[in-house]
Specification:
Elements (H helix, E strand, L loop, with lengths): L1 E6 L28 H8 L9 E5 L3 H10 L7 E4 L5 H15 L4 E6 L7 H16 L3 E6 L10 E4 L11 E7 L4 H10 L2 E11 H11 L4 H9 L2 E3 L2 E3 L2 H4 L7 H6 L5 E6 L9 H7 L7 E4 L2 E4 L4 E5 L6 E4 L4 E5 L4 E5 L6 H10 L10 E4 L2 E8 L3 E8 L7 E3 L3 E9 L2 E5 L2 E5 L4 E4 L5 E4 L6 E9 L8 E4 L6
Parallel strand pairs: 1-2, 1-4, 2-3, 3-10, 5-11, 12-14, 13-15, 14-16
Antiparallel strand pairs: 4-8, 5-8, 6-7, 6-8, 7-11, 9-10, 16-17, 18-19, 19-20, 20-27, 21-28, 22-25, 22-27, 23-24, 23-26
């Protein structure tokens, strides 16, 4: 059996404003009805695959579980990294975990934010590389280039792949992201593939590779696994030991040094969606190269992507050429399609002036549901709060604010100090400053309420949790 290792951290700044540190691109529905994370999990499921293992961080643990449940996939272990340390420590932690549960098993290491249109063709490529991986090779997957891309690393092959279906070929070397001229030369030579960052290896082969090429990682990562602990349905790696783990990618730590590497060439379509230009290429386009999503209208436009992520916000483009326009409730991006890789520069500029839109959304996902800010003033804030069926907020209090709750859909079970009551649609309740309170949804449909906060300070850090189903106390 092959255990998929889904890497699900990172911030995805090049797809700002849709992807941000608080909710990166793998959890968004960029293409189709599934999120990229859900599509990745579905692509690596079924015959021959074990339950997926997910490497993520504490902020995303409930999102991961919720999205897997949304597509009917029961995960294996969900390992929580105390902080991001790049891909090598994450992969090593996964391998050490599997060594204790499936020591002779196989691992398919894959980012969870890639687009692969033909899932069946990709599974065939995995099958083509399986024998080599079982024999001790570190098998990677190289993508047939469709254009001179400067945003990807490349793989130089030791031989030309005459047939993209026969199986692994020898790898000569890894190449860093090239400039335009170099990328054009490599495209013409047919001797280079895009580096997809996807690997099929045996547990024992990848552990041996770490011991040979990056032995300094073994002790701190192993300690983080051994000294970690279960937390609800997750496993937290030890934060104390994780602080000693170097920040290094899997390519640098192992793959660029290893001699037992093979490449499965793949021509079935792939994108890491590393910029809005890539999203435009992967989107359905009309005869003039125009792609729209959400409430968006293009008039006399060419080679343009118009996208609105707010059902109440219409985006209209007139006479545009080579333009990307992305509208969110709190931010709008307009860029030339050739500058897709520069969006990260805009995020850096927003961070430099402490603009909250650089990293966070007005919509905030929580383990019990989500909330979004509708209005904010000097001493007030209005939120829409959506609570999943049978979910509950923490038992909490505030030092600086009081709250009014108005239920607009469903029924809420409300606790205020020693009083407990049901609040139905079109009913309201007042939570005084300092009162101990809890909000629950006892029903079978989502419960929606409007919360009006008033006080001298309205920040999220003015929440004192006294009890919590999600172990956030």
């Amino acid at each position: 059996m092959i255990t998929p290792i889904l890497l699900s951290g990172g911030s995805g700044t090049r797809l700002w404003p849709l992807s941000r540190k608080s909710y990166p691109k793998q959890f968004a529905k960029l293409l189709g009805q599934d999120t990229l994370f859900q599509a990745s999990a579905k692509r690596l499921s079924g015959h021959g695959f074990a339950a997926p293992m997910v490497m993520t961080n504490a902020d995303f643990r409930f999102v991961v579980a919720e999205q897997l449940a949304g597509v009917g996939i029961d995960p294996g272990a969900i390992l929580i990294e105390p902080e991001g340390r790049n891909t090598a420590p994450a992969v090593l932690a996964a391998a050490l975990w599997l060594e204790s549960t499936d020591p002779e098993g196989m691992m398919l290491i894959a980012p969870s934010d890639h687009a692969v249109p033909d899932a069946a063709a990709f599974r065939s490529a995995i099958a083509a590389g399986l024998s080599a991986a079982q024999a001790g090779q570190l098998v990677t997957f190289g993508i047939q280039p469709s254009h001179a891309e400067t945003g990807y690393g490349y793989l130089e092959l030791a031989e030309h792949p005459d047939d993209y279906t026969t199986g692994p070929v020898a790898l000569r070397r890894f190449i860093e992201k090239p400039d335009r001229a170099q990328a054009t030369q490599m495209l013409a030579s047919n001797q280079y593939l895009w580096n997809a960052g996807i690997f099929l290896v045996s547990v024992q082969s990848i552990l041996a590779a770490f011991r040979t090429h990056c032995p300094e990682l073994i002790a701190p990562v192993q300690a983080a696994v051994v000294n970690g602990h279960a937390d609800l349905g997750f496993f937290r790696l030890s934060p104390k030991d994780w602080t000693h783990v170097p920040d290094i990618s899997l390519d640098y730590a192992v793959m660029e040094r290893a001699q037992n590497l093979s490449v499965v060439p793949y021509a079935g379509g792939w994108s890491d969606l590393g910029g809005w230009d890539a999203v435009w290429r992967e989107s359905h386009q009309d005869g003039r190269g125009v792609a729209v999503a959400g409430p968006a209208t293009a008039l006399d436009c060419d080679n343009t992507l118009l996208r609105s992520e707010d059902p109440t916000l219409e985006v209209v483009g007139i006479g545009l050429k080579n333009i990307i326009a992305i509208a969110m409730p709190d931010a709008v991006l307009i860029a030339d399609t050739s500058r897709g890789q520069d969006v990260k520069l805009a995020v850096a500029a927003l961070k430099a002036r402490n603009a909250p839109q650089a990293t966070t959304f007005s919509k905030d996902h929580r383990p019990w549901g989500w909330f979004e800010i509708l209005a904010i003033g000097n001493r007030f804030q209005v939120k829409r709060i959506v609570v999943h069926p049978n979910a509950s907020l923490s038992l909490q209090s505030h030092h600086h604010r009081s709250e009014h709750w108005i239920v607009v859909e469903g029924t809420a079970k409300v606790t205020i100090d020693d009083t407990e009551r049901l609040v139905s649609e079109n009913e309201s309740v007042y939570v005084p400053l300092g009162a101990l309170h809890r909000l629950e949804n006892p029903g079978k449909v989502p419960m929606v309420l409007i919360e009006v906060q008033t006080g001298t300070y309205l920040g999220e850090d003015d929440i004192i949790r006294h009890a919590d189903l999600y172990a956030r106390v």
